[in-house]
Design goal:
310 residues, alpha/beta, Inosine-uridine Nucleoside N-ribohydrolase, Chain A, two-stranded antiparallel ribbon
Amino acid sequence: MSKRKIILDCDPGHDDAVAILLAGASDKIDLLGITTVAGNSYVHNTTRNALIITEMAGIETEIYEGAAKPILRNQIVAPDIHGESGLEGVELPEPVRKKSEIPAVEFIAKTIKDNPGEVTLVPIGPLTNIAQFVLNYPELCMYVKEVVVMGGGIEFGNVTPTAEFNIFADPEAAQIVLQSGMPVVMVPLDVTHIAKINMEEIKELQKYSSEVVSKMGILLEFFHQTYYDVFRIEGAPLHDPCTIAYLIEPDIFESEEFYAEIELNGKLTYGQTVVDYWKKHGKKPNSKWLLNVDRKKYIDIIFEQLKKFN
């Protein structure tokens, strides 16, 4: 079986870091590069964090820095969940390796052009880089195999009552991506809040002999605590790794196609993913939405892949 070629677009971020490890470990994935974006923290932090995780894990892929701010809205970050650096909770080494001099969007465009119909974009932060790709290289959108997005929510948000963080951090970018005509898979809060890791499982990760995995376990303990402090949730939702698990083992997820847009004007609903769940709009679906996951099988995939770093 040929590997799925992907570009991972991320804003590490605790759960982003797990997604990086899964993508780097899986024999079903060819990680062509990692692009970074401002989101969970500022872009200089998210780039640094991506360099740290890949260097610690021995993942040989280049890091390409992307957008430092949203397309239109005022910038927001998430120190209440991820800490000031984006990866708080354990001391991490300063990276030796450096980011690429090639900008993220330029790398995305060249990779798509060189591999027409073969590359899946996996944005697990705000969609700024992907929207800029669409705006700057519209002729290449038809050559994108798929865009697998961690973002949105059908029934609820997590930064406002109606909006999920990645979409709320750049709603205009998300609207551009949804309306681009590229095949889009949405991995919303509705499924990622089923895909939680509990403290017992986190403690198991901390016992691994691999430094990057054991420290990932300590980071996830911090993440588990901030989720409880902010949301009173027991268990840490592993949002971003759901995208990689979907690419590794899609059968553990349930999904349905819907038409969706992003609310850009509402006073109370700015950034909401408005999903035509009951098919009332009369428009052809423009995205596939993951709705459910077998949590046990999801956690098993994470442990199976992380063991490869021991």
